[in-house]
Amino acid sequence: xxxxxxxxxxxxxxxxxxxxxxxxxxxxxxxxxxxxxxxxxxxxxxxxxxxxxxxxxxxxxxxxxxxxxxxxxxxxxxxxxxxxxxxxxxxxxxxxxxxxxxxxxxxxxxxxxxxxxxxxxxxxxxxxxxxxxxxxxxxxxxxxxxxxxxxxxxxxxxxxxxxxxxxxxxxxxxxxxxxxxxxxxxxxxxxxxxxxxxxxxxxxxxxxxxxxxxxxxxxxxxxxxxxxxxxxxxxxxxxxxxxxxxxxxxxxxxxxxxxxxxxxxxxxxxxxxxxxxxxxxxxxxxxxxxxxxxxx
Amino acid sequence: xxxxxxxxxxxxxxxxxxxxxxxxxxxxxxxxxxxxxxxxxxxxxxxxxxxxxxxxxxxxxxxxxxxxxxxxxxxxxxxxxxxxxxxxxxxxxxxxxxxxxxxxxxxxxxxxxxxxxxxxxxxxxxxxxxxxxxxxxxxxxxxxxxxxxxxxxxxxxxxxxxxxxxxxxxxxxxxxxxxxxxxxxxxxxxxxxxxxxxxxxxxxxxxxxxxxxxxxxxxxxxxxxxxxxxxxxxxxxxxxxxxxxxxxxxxxxxxxxxxxxxxxxxxxxxxxxxxxxxxxxxxxxxxxxxxxxxxxxxxxxxxxxxxxxxxxxx
Lengths: 296, 314
Prior knowledge:
The complex is a heterodimer of chains A (about 300) and B (about 325). Chain A has about 300 residues and is mainly α. Chain A has 12 helices and no strands. The longest helix of chain A is centred in the middle third of the chain and has 37 residues, at about 85-125. The two termini of chain A are about 30 Å apart. In chain B, helix 1 runs antiparallel to helix 13, helix 5 packs antiparallel against helix 6 and helix 5 (about 85-120) packs across helix 11. The termini of chain B are close together. Chain B has helices at about 1-30, 35-40, 45-55, 60-75, 85-120, 125-140, 145-160, 175-210, 210-220, 225-245, 245-260, 265-275, 280-305, 310-314. Chain B contains 14 helices and no strands. Helix content of chain B is about 80%, strand content about 0%. Chains A and B meet through helix 1, helix 6, helix 7, helix 10 and helix 12 of A and helix 1, helix 6, helix 7, helix 8 and helix 11 of B.
């Protein structure tokens, strides 16, 4: 499942999200077990990534040619890979690349997309036209092809994969912010603030941004999930994290060559991607439902 | 209607121009000099100069862009820097694989999504609804390249039911072709099915609340008749619209699926071209996909305006 799909499924709903009294929405969120489970699993993966040196039973990069492609055992819970490295330790360290890629890519997308969306929606006119045409152009590229072309142009590395994913996901945040700005700008209290002589900066920081926070937070959570898949996909193609640094996508790239001899090399990294992405999706869906008044 | 179509076509032109500028810009930023690469191991300055002149790599970048754009507009996407084949021919030779994969995936997605979405909406809040929701979330969260690897492991390696990779053209045998396309189509179709299922459920829920559905129930029609004859047709309209937007998703998914199953399609072409720094092929593939995406969405918009004239009137 790709990022365009996520955008297509989520964006229309989010445009309609109004501000909701925060505490009530958070209470609604707390009553949604799937969302809480999602949040807890995300937290678990964050702890695993942060405490990797303490949790990993073996070195993630030290080969052991006496233990090549060993099946899961008491010594190696997830087995070993083609040069005898412990798969469990690599999966634990691999969480770092995935989580960092998810969060940083979305931070890049928001850092570029939110100001552009504000500019387009608040000032309209020529800047709006230009920004939206460029946004449409970026959206016209199949996401992964754009990310592949950019990752290849910048050179294969985790940093460049994050930049590529960040730029490719920026249009989502431009469109969402612009839609929020247009909706909020038409509200009476914004007109009143304007009539009272409030500056543009004050209107944006006091009214527009606080009212756009919730939909942006929901979109960010769901986009992190897709950015994690995108990073794995790029690493799987050899355009993300470079060996010997462990990453789930990179591990799958190697594992596909040893499916007959060592299937465990493919099973555990894939399950890790699946559970992390599922957790972010559960949490994001819960957030959206908690803040969406149409369910009431 | 005509002014609407005209307006819509006019807004697509600057988007297309920006697309071409971006493609050209990205590819020119790629590391490595294609002339040096083509010259091979000898690195003879005369050969390098000849290659530069032949492919106009020695001209200023804006001139290279203008020349390239002029060729693109005439349908000439240049020649592959590696194989010397015409890019358009290369794309045309790979396209049938990706189109077949996309059509089969679309079928898989629709067969899964429509019944599941309808049942989830009709049985809202009950076990079937929760089951459908879990299925959709799983489809959205599973990386399709990993699903492909797992299917190869289970169905090809363990059970030996289907070949793990390769492609047989339809012309050489429908059965042999399908045996190799079932798994890739399923892998690519599941992600799309998840998106369509959620859309189907939400649009069905909206339609089921409409007056005409209540009237049909009041007239004594059975639940199944009301759902299939009245509600489904109306609920499908937004689902069909979403399909147009999913072309990009399908192509992105095809890149990975073709890698996993070694299918000689469009996706494999672009990945190989990126690794070989074959500018012309990458440019051609990306331009063709972007133009196709813009054109299909233009058609969807126009069709939508035909179905609902209020859109054109806005």
